Amino acid sequence: MDTGSLTVVGRPNMTLLTKSFACYSCSLREVCHFSHSQMKIRVNTTFATVLEILDSSNKIVCERQEFKFGEHGNYTMYSSSCQIEESSPPVNTDFPIYFAILGILLLTFMLGVVSLVHRNSISSWLGEGFEMLDPLSITPSKRLKSLDTFRGITICFMIFVNYGGGGYWFFKHSPWDGLTVADVIFPWFLFIMGVSLGFTIEKKGITQDFVRRVLNRTILLFLIGMIVINNNRDWKTMRIMGVLQRIALCYLIVVVVRSVTHRRIQETQAMTTQLERCSVCADVFVYIADFVIFLLFALLWVGFIFWLPLGSDCPRGYLGPGGLSLNGTYWNCTGGAARVIDSFVLGDSHMYRHPSCKNVYECSTSFEPEGILGTLTATINVFVGLQVSQVLLIFKRNRAKFLRLITWAIVLFFSGAFFDGTFKKEIGLIPMNKNLWSLSFAFITSSISIVLFAILFMVIDVCNWWDGSPFVFTGKNAIALYVVHVLFRSTFPVQWKVTKEHPNELALHLWGVSFWIIVAFFLHRRRIYLSL
């Protein structure tokens, strides 16, 4: 899987050098030295490959060129012409994912139609005195199906990715800079938590009982996270941070901030009335203190990233993966300040030992992708979700809510694109990076979260075109599914061994998701909802 065959025809004593196109600023490395007139090698088909051929005196025979090999394809490269020819065609491994997406969309559409017909038939049966819910009367005091659905979609994506994502590269985390489907899942969870938190605070207020529950939930999430990710019993190498641990810390930090700045909805609406002349800025002025605090978090992240001393071998402000990057100059500098802080606080032996940069950049140091410094910027995703809840609470008409959400999405996207250099040829000052949870990553993933939630809100809660099935079931038991899908990830009938080919793995991993959807459905039918 993800390999092809390349036969290089040349002369004895020639050398073939290659590197993956995904390895930014890496030197080419020797793959084989010709002892005969031709050599056959396996090539990776995940990303494009950069190739170069040298003669015995290290003079260039074939200039550096980039070529994207296809899976199971056979290719021939001639040193005389430096051309790469296709000997036998590759297999198109993208077709299975297209069919899978089409099938999921059709199934979801059919469930939506059945649900819509069912609701309409109930309305007709009850008679003319029965009225369907007016979309303009929807208030967030009622449970938002769109939020449960978004949470359900997110946990299903997470299960699919954690089981292997069919072996496709875009369902794996980026080697370092960049953004894949797998990278946006965690930010979605944080965003959803922020939206839920806003409604909870408005409903229950900031009381001693609420604070006690927050502390209990934080501790439980952190402990469950440590239990789930640690398979060994050695305290010396036990990993401390992880997904649930970061969620717990972000949850606690945002609650503390909102506890200081909280105003009840009656007060916010009164302030909004006073700010009618600046209605575009109303939701900002109501919680301006929150914006200032989270701006300070962002500035604190920037300060540590760019000005914390990293030692004699690593320059200040280094954001790279180390290893082969920049021709191996900063081999042990993976993550810069983020790693230095985690190493000091957690210790190298308690950090993640298989970072996403390992396969491409061959970085050899441990690195914690859910580390301390990135938790600061991860709170921005939660805060954005909290801000979305305020938009839904403050503004009365759904049209105003939707337009405000899209406005926030646009502002965040272009802010992230500015830092990332999305619209420039060169890399920006702060590239999108999930491992570092960079500012650009936080902004752009928050923008994506808002757009998806806004669409679901209009389709499900406003227009009643879809009831969220089957994802609404998984969304109501997200924490339980997260824990059990990890515990049973290699257990029959959830998963089993198959031949390592994309269609086989895709079918298996989709079955794994389907299994937990079925479990969630039966829990829903029995009204069993597990939460902290």
Compact overview of the structure:
The chain is α+β, with helices and mostly antiparallel strands and about 525 residues long.
Overall description:
With 532 residues, the chain is of the alpha+beta class. The protein has two domains: 3-88, Sandwich (Immunoglobulin-like), CATH 2.60.40; 138-526, no CATH class. The chain has helices spanning 95-126, 145-162, 185-204, 208-229, 243-261, 265-274, 282-286, 288-307, 337-345, 358-361, 372-394, 398-420, 439-462, 471-475, 478-487, 502-525, and strands at residues 3-9, 15-20, 29-33, 38-44, 49-54, 60-67, 74-78, 83-88. The two termini are 41 Å apart. Residues 125-138 have low confidence and may be disordered. The chain crosses the membrane at residues 97-117, 150-170, 185-202, 214-231, 243-261, 282-308, 372-395, 402-419, 439-459, 471-488, 508-524. Keywords: Membrane, Transmembrane, Transmembrane helix.
Topology:
Blueprint: E1 3-9, E2 15-20, E3 29-33, E4 38-44, E5 49-54, E6 60-67, E7 74-78, E8 83-88, H1 95-126, H2 145-162, H3 185-204, H4 208-229, H5 243-261, H6 265-274, H7 282-286, H8 288-307, H9 337-345, H10 358-361, H11 372-394, H12 398-420, H13 439-462, H14 471-475, H15 478-487, H16 502-525
Parallel strand pairs: 1-7
Antiparallel strand pairs: 1-4, 2-3, 2-5, 5-6, 7-8
Helix pairs in contact: 2-3, 2-13, 2-15, 2-16, 3-5, 3-11, 3-13, 4-5, 5-11, 8-11, 11-13, 12-13
- Give a short account of the largest sheet: 4 strands, mixed
| Secondary structure tally, helices | 16
Q: Return the string of H and E elements.
A: EEEEEEEEHHHHHHHHHHHHHHHH
Q: Runs with pLDDT <50, length 5+?
A: 125-138
Q: Could you say which overall geometry the principal axes of the C-alpha atoms support?
A: globular
